Each structure stands twice: as C-alpha cells, then as structure tokens.
Amino acid sequence: MAKLRVGVNGYGTIGKRVADAVANQSDMTLIGVSKRTPDYEAQSAALKGLEIYTPGEDAASRFKTAGFSVAGTVSEMISRCDVVVDCTPEGVGAENKRLYAEKGVRAVFQGGEPPGVADASFVAEVNYDEAFGKRYVRVVSCNTTGLSRTLGALNRVSPLKKVKATIVRRAADPAETKKGPLNALIPNPAKFPSHHGPDVSTVIHGVPIVTAAIVAPTTLMHVHVIYATLSTTVTRESVLEELEKSMRIRVVEAARGLDSTAALMEFARDLGRGRGDMPEVVVWRESLSVDRDEVYYIQAVHQESIVVPENVDAIRASAARCSKEESVRLTNASLGLSR
Ligand code: NAD
Are residues 293 and 226 in the same domain? Predict the structure, then answer.
C-alpha cells in the first residue's frame, strides 16, 4: 500500500510534535510543514531536513533572505498531500477548511476549532471507528483528550451515569513568555460548566458531565480532579486493571516521588522522550478511590504532547487505512508508549 502523504499546516507547539511523529511512521511520508516567519522554529525544521512551505511570495522572499530554502507555497503543499494536519492557532483551522475542500484533501483539525468544523471529534481509544473514512476529523483539546481517555476506560468497566470534574489549567505553555509572569487563580470561566464537559460529550456521546476550570500560574501540566458515578457497583481492582490496559494511561505512585507535575516532567525527561514529553494521561494510583458505584481520582495532562498520538491515529482513521487496534499499536510503538 502506498504511504500516506501528510502535511502539517502550522508549526508551533502542537505542529512540530505532530510533524516529528508523522515522520516517524513507516506508513506515512511527511511532505512538509508550513511556516510564516523565518525564526528559530523554522531553523530547527530546516536542520531536521523538513521541507518548508510558506503562505505566499512575500513570506518566501523573507525566508530566502534569511538563508532558508523554500519548497513552495502552502497551497502547493496541500496539493501534494492526502491528509493535512491543521495545527494553526484557534479559529484559523476553521478558516483553512475552505482550502482543504478546494484541493479535495482530508484534514485533521485541533481542539481549538469548534466541533462543527469536522465530521467527527476524536480520541483514538474511545471512538476511532466513528472517524473511519471521514474527510474531516477533529482531535479534541488536551484537557478533553485526558478526560475522555480515562472516562472512556471507566465507561468500559460500567457505563458512566454522571461525571463531575474540576480542571486546574496551566496558564501558558513553557515558551509562551508573552502571557506571563502570572500570579493569580482565575475561574475559567466563572460559571458552570466550563466548555470541557460538553466537549467530552462530542467523544463519549450522551455522558452527563459537568466541569469547572481554574487557571493556575504554572506552565507544566493540567491537573484534573474527577468524581464519576457508574451504572453498577465496581471494584477498585477492576477500574485499575482497565486503566492499566491502555498504554496511553500511565498510573504512577506519589509515594515513589512522582508527587507533583514537576516530578512527572522530570520523569519524562529521564525517560529520554523527545522534548521531555509525556503523551500519556497520568493517574495517581493513591488517588484512585472506589465507593460502590462511585470512582474518584486525580490525573495530570501534559498539554503540549497528549494529543500527538491522537493526531497520528486520526490520519489513519480519516484515510480508512487500518483498524483501531493496528493504528494504536503502530503509533504507540513509534512514540515509545509501552510499559
Ligand atoms: P501555536 O501558537 O504554538 O502554533 C501555531 C502555529 O501556527 C505557529 O507556528 C504560527 O506561526 C502558525 N500560524 C499562525 N497563523 C497561521 C495561519 N494563518 N496559517 C498557518 N499557520 C499559522 O499554537 P498551538 O499551541 O500549537 O495550538 C494549535 C492548535 O492546537 C490550537 O487549536 C490549540 O487549541 C490546539 N491545542 C493546543 C495545545 C497546547 O497546549 N498548546 C494542546 C492541545 C491542543
């Protein structure tokens, strides 16, 4: 079977990680990435040997003046692809959809876009089949991905009856210095629900979930406190077993020193992952409590990398390349997601 030709439009926090992951898949060819400014990220893309495409001739000449080779325009990149992964800032992806439609290419959008931009919102282990063969797929946000992965596991043990979750959100990504320094806790928004609950319902359909979010002055990870009511009485062992089946859920012990987001990020760096990333959602073993049909736990989400495996699987699902099991296996192996 011919390799899938994939382009990445927008080479920021998410785009550069998705580009590396795509380049690492044996069934995909990375056609190139789009860049608007000849900055250090363009320099790292060039040093990795990636083809750089620019929005138009003005940008191309700025890149050439700065010493970069330019492979063509973004429009040309899109024409050379089977699937484009749109990693542009919130709202821009929806505007770009017109371009993808004109060129007749499939597109994977990110969680900053509204659900209506795509034919399916996506978290691989939960609803891969729903995105199978769909022209436009939306990988949900980092928080929604983390919630959907573990709630999806609970839902497999016993159908979810009701979920309440509080999200402590990182204020900015580590490189986003323009948003700081920060010293406040901000209800985000100061009313119920935050958008995350309704967003989870686009993946786990019909789940009654209420979420609240607080922005905190940290850049490392998000933390979620989750209270779920299931349809039947369950045991802690059965929940733990289901969580641990997934290579995208990492259960850790605070008692082993992994007692903060700082320690988790240090652990990820120690594992030697690219960029010190932690694409798994991390659940603290000690927090997992079961009282008959009620399950409580605390988890952490590395916002910069959790959606990377989902983007790779969304490409295969959209192109109807292989089953969920096969795609998840290939993606996990390529990203080192194993025990
Ligand atoms: P980013 O700002 O880090 O990167 C966006 C990139 O797109 C930048 O390189 C920017 O120069 C480029 N760009 C800007 N306007 C463009 C345009 N019109 N056309 C092409 N490229 C353009 O953003 P990000 O954090 O990577 O977010 C991208 C998407 O991923 C958003 O939908 C966001 O909501 C979602 N997301 C972000 C995170 C996160 O924590 N950063 C996590 C999950 C999902």
Answer: yes
- 87 is an active site residue: no
Q: Is 303 helix (H, G, I), strand (E, B) or coil?
A: coil
Q: What's the rounded Cα separation, in Å, for the pair 13 and 89?
A: 10
Find the domain containing 295 and state its range. Answer: 142-301
Domain count across the chain: 2
Our mutation pick for probing the ligand 1 site, out of 8, 87, 196, counting the most ligand atoms within 8 A of Cβ, is 87
The tokens 């490189």 sit on which residue? 175
Burial degree of 183 (CB within 10 A; 0-12, 13-18, 19+):
exposed
Distance CA 302, CA 265 (A): 8
Q: How far is the CA of 7 from the centre of ligand 1 (A)?
A: 15
Query: Domain check: are 238 and 318 in the same one?
Result: no
Q: Are residues 293 and 153 in the same domain?
A: yes
**Which residue among 17, 35, 36 has the greatest number of ligand 1 atoms within 8 angstroms of its CB, and so is best to mutate?**
36
Give the DSSP letter of residue 91. T
pLDDT, one tens digit per residue, over 205-255 is 999 999 999 999 999 999 999 999 999 999 999 999 999 999 999 999 999
